[in-house]
Amino acid sequence: MESNSRKEKSRNYRWKRLLNYRAIVRQIPFFLFLAFLAVIYIYNGHMADKTIRNISKTSNELKELQFEYKDVQGDALKRSKQSELMEAVQPLGLKELTTSPVVLIDSNETN
Predict the structure, then answer these.
(1) Are 96 and 105 in contact (CB under 8 A)?
(2) 56 touches 48 (CB < 8 A)
(3) DSSP class of residue 19?
(4) Which positions ≥6 away from 23 have C-beta within 8 Å?
(5) Least confident segment among 33-37, 74-78, 81-85
(6) Contact 79, 85 (CB under 8 A)
(7) CB distance 23 to 17 below 8 Å
């Protein structure tokens, strides 16, 4: 029985020693350091989320611009076809040549 009471007393003494004012005051810098690390960890998480959102937004904008580029490029290729070009200039009174072009020669030039 004496050994149990001694163990209990030594256990109580250890707890009292760990929880006394001086020991707690000595641990304050460590607790502040842990709090600082927690703040940095939270900040890092928020910055990572913000970066991921920006990357996603930029990726979506890039896809939209690629689709727009392909659409405009397709329209330009379609409009540059001869048949489409004929339809576009017909209201202006222009017609397609049916005869071969005439070559003009300068008479002042001596060969």
Answers:
(1) no
(2) no
(3) T
(4) 17
(5) 81-85
(6) yes
(7) yes
CA 2 to chain centre: 70
What is the SS3 assignment for 104?
Answer: coil
Six-digit token pair at 54? 């920006």
**pLDDT (tens digit, 9 = 90+) per residue, 77-89?**
888 888 888 888 8
Q: Which residues contact 86 (CB under 8 A, 6 or more apart)?
A: 96
Among candidate residues 76, 94, 78, the one with its CA nearest the CA of residue 86: 94
Q: What is the maximal distance between C-alpha atoms in the chain?
A: 137
Q: How many Å apart are CA 77 and CA 65, to the nearest integer?
A: 18
Buried b (16+ CB within 10 A) or exposed e, 23-39: eeeeeeeeeeeeeeeee
Domain boundaries, the chain: 2-91
**pLDDT of amino acid 73:** 94
